Automatic annotation (TrEMBL):
Name of the featured protein: Putative BRCT domain-containing protein
PROSITE patterns recorded: BRCT (PS50172)
Domain of life of the source: Eukaryota
Transmembrane segments: none
Source species: Medicago truncatula
Length: 234
């Protein structure tokens, strides 16, 4: 029985082959009770503005087929959350898997164009939007390396968590905002540091500090080292 008109006017295609079968009845009930027009199965010819195909994730084997035909896709988690919170389905054409990042403001910096596209896609899939300019109301900053100017700004001025791309990917994989502790971008992240000309006890202490701050310690100077610390003047 329909109890609301949240999904009224939406043609929702539901197939047991496109998302976990054990969620089928729950999703079907959510769509029906909120006024959506249910179509069992999927139809590659249905790519109108109000046509939605429910699918599990971007990795599903049918995702590219539906995308190539211009079909609008939405994650079953997103459908259930919209029904639970009393809101209509997202209108955006891009795939929305869930709404994990809806209220999260992220800035990414230091990545090449292709990587930025991927980060933007992940944010959109989770209901968020990637910010392109620094602002004081950001939640987190994703950087590729500590040489990015925004890294120092985020660390010293914004004082917000600085995390790696892997954190965002893990949020996408788990469809929730995961703890950031394991993904924090520490000051020496991406650096390989060699120490020479310093007494053994001091060198051991410096090695500990380097590792604690995300860097790699090298006992020998090699081409892979990014920095050399020495008490010798050149």
């Amino acid at each position: 029985m329909k109890t609301s008109k949240l999904f009224d006017g939406f043609n929702v295609f539901i197939s047991r082959h496109l998302f976990p079968p054990h969620e089928f009845d729950t999703v079907l009930k959510a769509v029906e009770e909120n006024g959506g027009q249910v179509h069992i199965g999927f139809d590659l010819s249905r790519n109108g503005e109000n046509d939605y195909h429910i699918i599990s994730c971007r990795q599903h084997y049918k995702f590219q087929d539906l995308k190539s035909k211009g079909c609008k896709m939405i994650g079953y988690r997103c459908v259930l959350q919209c029904a639970k919170e009393g809101r209509p389905l997202p209108r955006q054409a891009a795939f929305t898997c869930c709404l994990t990042m809806e209220a999260v403001k992220i800035l990414a910096y230091g990545f090449d164009a292709d990587q930025m596209v991927k980060i933007d896609e992940l944010m959109i899939e989770m209901g968020g939007a990637l910010h392109t300019t620094p602002s004081s109301d950001l939640n987190s900053v994703i950087v590729k390396n500590v040489w990015a100017p925004e890294y120092k700004w985020a660390l010293n001025v914004l004082k917000k968590p600085i995390v790696s791309y892997e954190w965002l990917k893990q949020c996408s994989d788990e469809h929730q905002v995961v703890p950031q502790e394991s993904y924090m971008f520490l000051p020496f992240s991406g650096l390989k540091i060699c120490v020479t000309g310093i007494q053994a006890d001091k060198r051991k202490e410096m090695e500990k500090l380097i590792l604690q701050n995300g860097g790699k310690y090298s006992a020998e100077l090699t081409k892979k080292c990014t920095h050399l610390i020495s008490n010798i003047s050149f």
